Amino acid sequence: MEKSLFRYIWTHSRRDQLIVCAVVLASLPFYFMSLDLPRQIVNQAIQGEAFRDGNATAPFLHLKFDWPAWLGSGTVEIFEGFEVGRVGLLMGLSFLFLFFVVVNGAFKYWINVAKGVLGERMLRRMRFDLFSMVLRFTPEALRSVKSSETATIIKDEVEPIGGFIGDAFITPVFLGLQATTALVFIMVQNVWLGLIALAVIAVQFTIIPRLRRELLRLGKQRQLASRQLAGRIAEVLDGIEVVHVHNAYDWERAEIGHRLFNLFTIRLKIYNRKFFVKSLNNFLAQLTPFFFYAIGGYFALRGTLDIGQLVAVIAAYRELPPPLKELIDWDQQRLDVQVKYDQVTQHFAEERLAPLLDARQEAEDVPLVGPMVGEDIRVAGPHGDMIIEGGAFAIDLPAKVALISNGGAAATTMARIIARRSTEFHGQIRIGDRDLLQIPASVAGRRIAYAGVDPILFPGSIRDNLVYGLRAKPLRRAAEDRREMDRRIAEAIRTGNPLEHISDQWVDYERIGARDENDLDRILIDLLDRVGMGDTIYLFGLGGRIDPERDRDLAERVVEARRRLRETFQTNGMADLVEPFDPTRYNSQATIAENLLFGVAVSDEFRGRNLAENAQFRSATDRSGLTDDLVQMGLEIAQTMTEIFEGLPPGHSLFEQFSFIGAEELTEFEAILRRHARGEGRLTQEDRTRLLALPLAYIETRHRLGLLDRRLMSRVVEARGLVREVLENSGDGVEFYDPDRVCAAAPLRDNLLFGRISHQVANARVRVAEAVAAIVRELDLLTDVERIGLDHQVGTAGRLLSPQERASVNLVRCLVKRPDIMVIDGALAPFDEAQAQQLMEVLIGLLDRQSLFMVLPNDRQAGAFDAQMRFRDGQIIINETAQRTPRSRQVEPGGAQTTAGEVA
């Protein structure tokens, strides 16, 4: 990052800065003329100096310039003008003044917009430059850099810098020339008044900046305190589970409160100093008019200064303080922004960044095979102890190598070095004639994969995370509106941003042996199945959704599978397992809300208790006469629940079984029941809404309170059509069931069953799942279901997946890019011993022609590898397995033919 802010700005925006400055210079003559017009209006038109000799007319637009006596006197005539009367002269000069007001306003508007656009472009460039440097942080720097602080810097702290960039050169030029023009005009009218104005300006520019130095120091403290506050809040959020487990709420509140108090104290000091400086500056600004009125009036009384000149001087001075004040503010902003910029450059210091190593020639991107030699490897621990001291080794790649840790840190350290996740070591590791650390990052990213103990997944689908390592560069540009594309590319060039678009084709299908996107999904699903996640992807697929408009063929096949599944249940005596959805019947396995809606809520206002508050739904139940019955049913449920839960502690299993009322709501419903006992009229509208919400979640076959009879079921079915009619007119809040269509809002599993599994039949869910799986295989839907499973969202940092699922996704992400070297360091820790053993065998089989380095805790599985790398007394010892697995010769597209050698 450029150390000087102004040099950074000038380097990247010199052309735009010069264009705006040229417009500023072009605006000055118009500005000077607008300052002189008040004098002409007062002297020539109002006082009649232009008609002093009895002339009936006077020239209008007579353009001339009178040099003052102290500059040698004289007149320069530009245009003779037009002869007009007294009123004509007054109106002409007034409209001319208005014209210059509009022109000057137009100049200011264009200049301000140009400054804003320039600032936004530079802010975009700066943020992109900083993000690019984030990608270059070394593994060691990442351990000391807080992600929240870095994100705060890029998002918030450079915002004022970007706002200043447009003002960096243009504002002092624009405001300085405006102030100089006004000051020159005053001096032209009267040199003494000009000197007075100049003296006050000199005092302002001397005292005010000095007083503002303390503001800079306080501003720096505030910025650091704010950044540390954001970092601490992020730390608490990341470790919130520990806070819950150890009841550290009060400590964390006190700690954050202490930081907020310190921040408040700093800001209070800033306000006191800031407004004192502002008051002093305003006083000095008002001092000059005092001198103008007193001394200028004295000169006017003596006749050395006419009234028009005095009015013009005062009018010109009114134009002088704003630019002067803005110039002082600009200087303050300059110092403040420079402090912020210095802190940004310190955070992105050069020592934290890895060197820029890019593939200089395509020929360099060749397989990482051949002799791998380490010489004089020395690694120091955090306390100065030597983890590896003078270690050396030689291995012929490809090979399967077990790094035996035996409880020490050396194996993990070596694994991170081989994977280029650590650069803090002395010595050299070469693969062939190439230094490991000097291999371009683009080549290493393709040829080396690393799976550590803590897999990192990004928010998005499982598929997005699996193909993450395949998005090296776009291969084909996506279809895009030509005009919009040209504008996007032009802006990208001006701001140093990438020309590529995120919608381009980034995945190289040929590299991994896939024909298209569907074939890639097949490869991903096969790899997931091999690492033991096939059943999970299938279940994710059943829980996923399809868009019948986008994939009509699949939607039709799902409807066909629905019919076949229904026939299977009927013919195999399993009809009692699932009660199907029927528009003319009540589904006793579904809630009352589901029976009324006969569909799936799309928006939150139709989900859960929000449904009871929804005005459209309430109007439908009111019109059908169901509301009072449901409220009465809610009273009975509340009465029963308060009796059942009385005396039970929160968290009891009954609360989960009867999920109508939470433990914290018992007292509220008890109060409602007491009000009802005093008389029906005492129930408020809010009470009725809360009671209505209870039966909407009621299922008779599950809860068995005997509250739902056939008469009420029939009335619910009768009201179903009215509810649909009202909700269809109100918008797209609910997608209704149709026996012949797929419901896009419902999971695929529900679309296949098109009903609810019985709560009364033992082991019904398992039997239904087996029947669904059989139909899916029979109709060749398995691949489609698993493809839908790839769309399953992993959540922030993969938190919607289990540790085993995160580890599996991480392994497949490494495998799918077919690396030459794969390093496994604790990636199998979430699995039990049998699963880990099976996964290890799968990895060895999948990486038959590639190298595998795996950290093992002991020798138990070491025999499956070609060699073992052990660490003893700081030395590296290579033991070759008695019978090394033979490997065939390998040819990679675009690469050289290689042969695996023996372990050195």
Account of the protein in words:
The protein is α/β, with parallel strands linked by helices and 904 residues long. Helix content is 56%, strand content 10%. The model is unreliable at 357-363 and 885-904 (pLDDT under 50). The strands form six sheets. The protein has a six-stranded mixed beta sheet with strand order 10-15-16-7-17-18, with helices on both faces. A four-stranded antiparallel beta sheet has the order 6-5-8-9, covered by helices on one side. Among the domains are: 5-352, ABC transporter transmembrane region fold, CATH 1.20.1560; 362-457 and 801-880, Rossmann fold (3-Layer(aba) Sandwich). It contains 33 helices and 18 strands. Helix 33 (833-846) links the parallel strand 15 (821-824) and strand 16 (851-856). Helix 17 packs across helix 32 (803-816) and helix 22 crosses helix 28 (710-730). The two termini are 45 Å apart.
List keywords for this structure.
nucleotide-binding; membrane; ATP-binding; 904 residues; 18 strands; Rossmann fold; alpha/beta; Type_1_exporter; four-stranded antiparallel beta sheet; ABC transporter ATP-binding protein; six-stranded mixed beta sheet; ABC transporter transmembrane region fold
Can I get a quick summary?
It holds the Pfam family ABC_membrane. By secondary structure, the protein is an alpha/beta fold.
